[in-house]
Amino acid sequence: MHNHPSGDPSPSQADIQMTKAIIDIAKPLGIAVHDHIIVGRSGHASLRGMRLI
């Protein structure tokens, strides 16, 4: 989870790529990444809810 100071909670390509990399690294360790939430002034975005992960 993190915030976007701009206020727009839309995930950037970097957010998506970083999350996928963390998932790939965590999986062999038995760690599940359930979601990545981005918070902004206008609300929040869930990468899982947006089917990006």
UniProtKB/TrEMBL annotation:
PROSITE patterns linked to this entry: MPN (PS50249), UPF0758 (PS01302)
MPN domain residues: 1-53
Presence of keyword Protease: yes
TM segment ranges: none
Top-level taxonomic group: Bacteria
A Pfam family that the UniProt record links to this protein: RadC
InterPro entries: MPN, RadC_JAB, UPF0758, UPF0758_CS
Key words of the record: Hydrolase, Metal-binding, Metalloprotease, Protease, Zinc
One GO MF term attached to the UniProt entry: metallopeptidase activity
GO terms under biological process: proteolysis
Gene3D superfamilies (UniProt xref): Cytidine Deaminase, domain 2 (3.40.140.10)
PANTHER family (UniProt xref): DNA REPAIR PROTEIN RADC, UPF0758 PROTEIN YEES-RELATED
Protein name: DNA repair protein
